[in-house]
Design a protein that fits this description.
Elements lengths: L17 H18 L3 E2 L2 E4 L2 E4 L5 E2 L7 H14 L1 H19 L2 H12 L7 H15 L7 H13 L4 H18 L4 H10 L8 H28 L7 H8 L16 H24 L3 H18 L4 H13 L2 H19 L3 H12 L4 H18 L3 H18 L4 H13 L9 H10 L3 H28 L6
Helix pairs in contact: 1-14, 2-14, 3-12, 3-13, 3-14, 4-6, 4-11, 5-7, 5-9, 6-7, 6-19, 7-9, 7-18, 7-19, 8-17, 8-18, 9-20, 11-12, 14-19, 15-16, 16-17, 16-18, 16-20, 17-18, 18-20
Amino acid sequence: MKADQSKKWYHQITMPHVYVLLFSFIVIMAMMSWIVPAGAFVRIMVDGREMIKPGSFHYVKQHGQGIFEILKAFPKGFERGQAISYFLFATGGAFYLINKTGAIEAALAHLVKALKGNEIIVIPIVLFIIGLGGSTIGMSEETIVFIGLAVTLARAMGYDALVGMGMISLGAGLGFTSGFMNPFSVGVAQSIAELPMFSGISLRLTLFVAVWIATVIYLVTYARRVKNDPTTSFVYEEEQAYKKGLIKDEDDIQVGEMSSRQKLIMLVFIGGFCIIGYGVFKFQWFISEIGAVFIGMGLVSAVIGGMSANDIAEGFIEGAKEMLYAALVVGLAQSLVVIMEDGMIMDTIIHGLTGAISTMPSYLAAVGMYFVQIMINFFLSSGTGQAAVTMPIMVPLGDNLEVTRQTTVLAFQLGNGFLDSIMPMSAVLMAQLAIAKIPYKKWFRFALPLMVIWLLIGLVFVLYAQFTHYGPF
């Protein structure tokens, strides 16, 4: 069936350019700062973490954000996002150098040859592995370095860039949200709720499996359809443009012997990721350390590949240049948060949303918490940050409405994570799309039906937790 014969309602959705979208949100929030009463919670330090003092919300003097404040929010936002921007430039430049040696392409050619006829098994395996990373170490920013490799692999197997992007981005999303041992979201939320660390893990493991199965079915169905008829791809135009720059396609891959240099470069590549994994688990490395290792991988690989100093410099710049789009999005996304904080309306919005739950009957309170957390996540996407801000409010509210604390944590974790995979304010998502060269509006159309499925699964689990008094308390 051709693409024009298989249009669904969600295919017709049009989205503005992501820069326009984010700028519009910034202007809207600046206007709201003149209308929404300014307010603030009292924040205290508990075990090294900034927490909200329950019942401390109070109104303050209005802090309306004008044109000059909007303009100032941009440099402030870019300052806040500088770590992620550095990471994008570092990994983009380094990956370009590694890719230019041809080692990755040669290795993938051998892999495709070995999997001939069974390529589809790669999708559930990669989703599961990345999902485990999201559920255990909160893998999010770290996935950026895998996007280019996954897209190349997906194309080599006869799929499109969306399949490659989906294996990594959706894998991390399903893992982070189910978070059966995620210290950055579930761990922080449970510590605030005074629950035993990672208690109630059996239900979260079941949730992980359920969301993983749904994602596998969705992505495999799409991948098979694209392989059978490439014109059904949501990114068909982009794939055609990409192929025009290639001299071979999936049926034409030449699998020859890898050179000694390429084999050594792949050892460096694999070794680098082993070092990153060890550092993340052992020393809690974050994007600065991971970016440093990636730069090292790129430089060593370029030297082994016989590149001159000038070629290395020019190649690194070329790769970093490709990340400019994503780096600008990171700054714009942070500028939105700056406007809301400087306008003193973020706490007011959170206070209003949580206050609405208090009027609900107990059997609906958990569902209300779930949807409120989803809405709050639109303004405050950080898992740790959202836990620190909302849990001190939600826990006593849940106690009063006969919602167990474990259910309150579950509502937070599900509301905090699901929509991160399509929100334009997510710096990580924008970086991933920039590397994969997928327009945001096409990713939105592709991922939206799956997000609805994820949200419904979450609703079922929240209702189950409420009616079974999910505990220990």
